[in-house]
Specification:
Blueprint (H helix, E strand, L loop, with lengths): L2 H9 L5 H13 L17 E2 L5 E5 L7 H4 L7 H12 L20 E5 L12 H18 L3 E5 L1 H10 L14 E3 L5 E5 L4 H4 L6 H13 L4
Helix pairs in contact: 1-5, 4-8
Length: 220
């Protein structure tokens, strides 16, 4: 299976009735600031370099962010913080992601998420994340990343389950680096949500440290 096949199956997914209803209602009602937008309103596929050795895993699309634009971390504050950091680190061709139709490209990095549909209150249920897990598994099997970056504790814990890591010493912490089998590495990071960035828990300098660690752990 290739990425196009994974994404075609993903975009047609209707496994979670609650999420289907929510994402489509948001797309119909829209936010006043985006009333002229044609919302995506479907599961959001991964985005980036299909040969990337870095896999960035977030939680879920934002209702008026990725659920509107159709691109991971695009159209909301989280993406406005993430993409400049990727640009500074040399992984992105530009510091802003505006829509799925702009000319932004990612180098050696692919962005995905645990849950592909926008959930109410940004809180997917566990069964919804499990329903989405085969898509993430398929991406990992195809991309064979060398470095995993988990944005937030939920993404981190889901990766531990998916990668079958049961070591109690491997626990979520910002900028924590864990060697895995097969020459792979897992790195934890605070999620670039407004809750973290506006409170100062995650600053640009603190976030840049994560991407420095990513580059340091990539094979030559």
């Amino acid at each position: 299976m290739v990425l196009d096949e994974i994404n075609a199956e993903l975009v047609a997914c209707r496994r979670c009735a609650r999420l289907v209803a929510w994402r489509e209602e948001v797309a119909r009602a829209k936010r006043r600031a985006y009333r002229d937008w044609d919302y995506w309103g479907k599961p959001v596929p991964g985005f980036g370099d299909p040969h990337g050795r870095v896999l960035v895993v977030g939680l879920a699309p934002g209702a008026h962010g990725s659920n509107r634009t159709g691109r991971m971390f695009t159209g909301d504050a989280s993406g406005d913080f993430l993409y400049p950091a990727l640009y500074r680190a040399g992984f992105a061709s530009r510091p802003r992601s505006l829509s799925s139709e702009d000319d932004l490209t990612l180098h050696n990095l692919y962005i995905t998420a645990v849950c592909r549909c926008a959930p109410p209150d940004n809180k997917p249920a566990r069964v919804e994340m499990l329903n989405c897990r085969p898509y993430l598994q398929a991406e990992i099997d195809l991309l064979r990343p060398r470095v995993f970056v988990a944005l937030g504790r939920i993404a981190f814990d889901n990766l531990l389950e998916l990668l079958e890591i049961e070591d109690p010493a491997v626990r979520f912490a910002h900028a924590a680096v864990y060697p895995l089998s097969g020459g792979r590495t897992l790195i934890g990071s605070y999620h670039p949500s407004r809750q973290n960035t506006q409170t100062g828990r995650l600053t640009a300098a603190v976030f840049d440290r994560v991407w420095e660690l990513v580059k340091a752990n990539l094979p030559e």
